[in-house]
Design brief:
2 domains, 438 residues, single chain, two-stranded antiparallel ribbon, mainly alpha, 2% strand
Length: 438
């Protein structure tokens, strides 16, 4: 059944000023995060860091975000989403500029760590505000739209950052050319801040305690240490799935370049092209998947997209050519982007509005924790089985595919648990033919 507030918000529509601005903010934040992908190691090295320490910069950003997410989400429940978003974007402006001014790698590490926290302040309340701002039967479509904006930003960022750095190198020293894109990052955050201040308003929080997201009446629980004392079983299952989704990203990205190099002998520019092409296919699919989840239900799209993406991971190491691998990787990413908006919509379904910020933050912490742990396990498995192989039913199974196999098995298991134990509570299903005619 739709939530009581949905009827009052029908007149606003899905693509109100608030939703459009939140989509732009999502684009800017993901673009800013991916701006330094093509040159960040060189920047850190120029400031005195070692090659072995490069991963610490990424981990510090993500760990700060993981720790602060539930606290910042809870703060947005009390102070209002808009205010926390504005403070987070202001932090992005300040620390984005400081990243381009740091005198040494130690200061770079410190600034990156704090930047992880302020980025969480900008993005997490935005997710909760998005759900607050549209009718419950349109949550999937809204999540798909913002997810598409994020995908676009994530894929445009490296090209944009590389172009700015290259242009800057024509006028500045090489080290200083690495600094200039961070000022572009700060400028974009300032633009996002102005848009939020101009167009976004907080939505009133309804007194919805006792809905499906929280259980009341418990004073003690074994879940208290993780902040789960009053959460429902469906929400805890979603946290398990969030961790698995984070693992999925963390497993694949660190070994992707090694995989294409070992299997096909591809050069970095070829590998980058494959990753960009396969990533961009999800832009419209994410939006369409969100709309479909509103019409047909969350779980059918979760099953279709989630399980298909995991099977794509199983098949990828078995491909025989770069073209086959690109096609399989594209289909895998397409299915994953079909799946994620439905997951976000289901998360919104099981969280009450007055604590949505904190619970979204907790969900994000589990996702990011998986993204942190994933690279460690994936690179260990890749190194351990890199030069091994097995014959299974006449099929040659390469050992360097082990991270893909393990990731797929974990993903299929957690999706099966979700499909079996989490019930849909908000979506109004429609007959298939009738939905297609709309």
């Amino acid at each position: 059944m739709p939530s009581p507030q949905s009827g009052r918000m029908k007149s606003v529509g899905v693509y109100s000023g608030t939703v459009l601005v939140l989509g732009i903010v999502s684009f800017i934040e993901t673009l800013a995060f991916s701006i330094p992908v093509s040159y960040f190691p060189n920047y850190a090295l120029s400031l005195g860091a070692t090659v072995a320490s490069i991963g610490i910069f990424t981990s510090s950003f993500m760990i700060a975000s993981t720790i602060m997410s539930p606290r910042l989400g809870g703060l947005s429940d009390g102070l209002g989403r808009r205010k926390v978003i504005l403070w987070g974007l202001l932090g992005d402006v300040i620390f984005g500029a400081l990243t381009g001014l740091v005198p040494s790698w130690i200061w770079l590490l410190l600034v990156r760590t704090v930047n992880g926290a302020v980025t969480a302040a900008a993005t997490l309340p935005a997710e909760a505000l998005l759900v607050d701002s549209v009718p419950s039967e349109k949550w999937g479509e809204a999540a798909g739209f913002v997810s598409s904006c994020a995908i676009l930003g994530r894929n445009v960022g490296p090209v944009f950052g590389g172009a700015v750095q290259f242009a800057a190198s024509q006028f500045f020293s090489l080290e200083n050319s690495y600094r200039i894109p961070y000022f572009a990052d700060a400028g974009l955050a300032l633009l996002a801040m102005a848009l939020v201040a101009w167009k976004v308003r907080d939505k009133p929080v309804a007194a919805t305690a006792g809905r499906t997201g929280l259980k009341t009446g418990r004073s003690r629980s074994s879940y208290a240490v993780l902040g789960l004392r009053e959460t429902s079983r469906p929400f805890r299952i979603l946290l398990l799935t969030a961790f698995a989704n984070g693992l999925s990203l963390g497993f694949i990205i660190p070994v992707m370049a090694l995989f294409f190099q070992d299997k096909f002998g591809m050069e970095p520019i070829e590998i980058g092209s494959v990753m960009s092409i396969s990533g961009l296919v999800g832009i419209t699919v994410s939006w369409l998947g969100g709309r479909a989840s509103d019409r047909f239900g969350r779980k059918p799209l979760i099953a279709l997209g989630g399980i298909s993406s995991r099977f794509g991971g199983l098949i990828l190491p078995l491909t025989a050519s770069p073209t086959q691998a690109t096609v399989v990787l594209s289909v895998r990413n397409l299915a994953f982007n079909l799946y994620m908006p439905s997951m976000r919509a289901l998360l919104a379904d099981v969280t009450p509005q007055e604590t949505r910020g904190r619970l979204f933050g907790l969900y994000n912490s589990f996702f990011t924790a998986g993204d942190i742990v994933g690279p460690i396990i994936a690179t260990y498995l890749y190194d351990l089985f890199r030069f091994q192989g097995w014959k299974i039913g006449g099929l040659d199974v390469p050992g360097y595919g082990m991270p893909y196999y393990v990731n797929s098995i974990i993903g299929i298991f957690t999706i099966a648990v979700l499909l079996g134990f989490v019930k849909e509570t908000v979506v109004t299903r429609q007959p298939f033919r009738r939905a297609l005619r709309r």
